Amino acid sequence: DKGNFRHFMAKEIHEQPEVVSHTLARYLDLNAMKTRLPDDLPFDFRTLNRIAISACGTAFYAGLVAKYWFERFARLPVDIDIASEFRYREMPLEPNGLSLFVSQSGETADTLASLRYCKQEGQHIAAIVNVEESTIARESDVIFPTLAGPEIGVASTKAFTCQLAVLTALAIAAGRARGHLSEEDERKLVEALVEIPRFAAQALRLEPQIERLAKTFSHASDVLYLGRGTSYPLAMEGALKLKEISYIHAEGYAAGELKHGPIALIDETLPVVVIAPYDRIFDKTVSNMQEVAARGGRIVLMTDPKGAEAASIDALETLVLPDMPATITPIVYALPVQLLAYHVAVFMGTDVDQPRNLAKSVTVE
Ligand code: F6R
User: Fold this and answer.
1) If you measure from the C-alpha of residue 47 to the centroid of ligand 1, how many angstroms do you get, rounded to a whole number?
2) Is the per-residue pLDDT at 252 higher than 90?
3) Could you tell me the pTM of the whole model?
4) What is the DSSP code (8-state) at residue 327?
5) pLDDT of residue 176
6) DSSP class per residue in 8-46
7) Under 8 Å CB-to-CB from 167, ≥6 apart: which residues?
8) Ligand 1 centre and the CA of 164: distance in Å?
9) Residue 355's CB: how many other CB atoms inside 10 A?
10) Active-site residues: which are they?
């Protein structure tokens, strides 16, 4: 049932404040303002050597964001791979490593094959899944469910933000267990997570502006997305979302890579979406944005009030999100990124919920 929405994708985008809140409630103790994981975890964050994350598509980008979090909060090295590459690479895995699989459906063939490889190599196996009765869930030592509810739209939206919600709670718990985060650090981070639903609801209010902007995208043959830090995986996620439902070619790049190649693409016809909350690397991203502006690129800047003021650039359009703690920006900024892809696709008249050539669950390799 689509409720009052035209598409399942729109409904699922709008459900995010609620389902992210449900998911967080599962992994946070809101009285003590701490993370809360099962007592009987089959591994110990204190003694883990490494985490190896494998996943496909959008779930892979969630894993890539988590790499930044685990490394920052827990000083725990993370390898992150596309499952279809990982499964054939025969990567050496040291004892006492955690293999973490991220999958909405829990049935993705390449992710499952990676899981079986890691199991054979004696790794601890954990999975973040949305479908708890899935094969990946069954074959894992422990699962961390996302409580997104059934996701019908082929393009993943609410599963992604719920995956991020679980991953950030895991990374904070790991940081606390390993002694890299104090009780006070944990409390501050949990306070930030608790605010996500409110900020996400505020972000959804940008929809009318995004809808108008989407019309100007429909003429583009390519779109570039740029971001740094945890906004970099989000840039790739934005590009994936746009190409899969609007069929407009898009690429996500780390902003710092711009001058190593993609800057050659910039001209007056290329929209460039810059995801840049006002964080400690904001200035670096802005200098990349100035390089785009100097070459006539059409910029869409997603930032916050401080960023909008500091950017001092004639941006084509600025989407101003609320000011929020840096840790939660990839979750909240995902919403305008999804809405942009959605409205471009609606304007183009594509089959948003069932884009051509795609299946919801990829059970063959
Ligand atoms: C993109 C999308 C796909 C899936 C990928 C993995 O919108 O939906 O890229 O994320 O096929 O699927 P799961 O998470 O079911 O393993």
Assistant:
1) 31
2) yes
3) 0.97
4) G
5) 98
6) HHHHHHHTHHHHHHHHHHHHEETTTTEE---TT-SS-TT
7) 62, 63, 65, 66, 69, 102, 128
8) 14
9) 18
10) 360
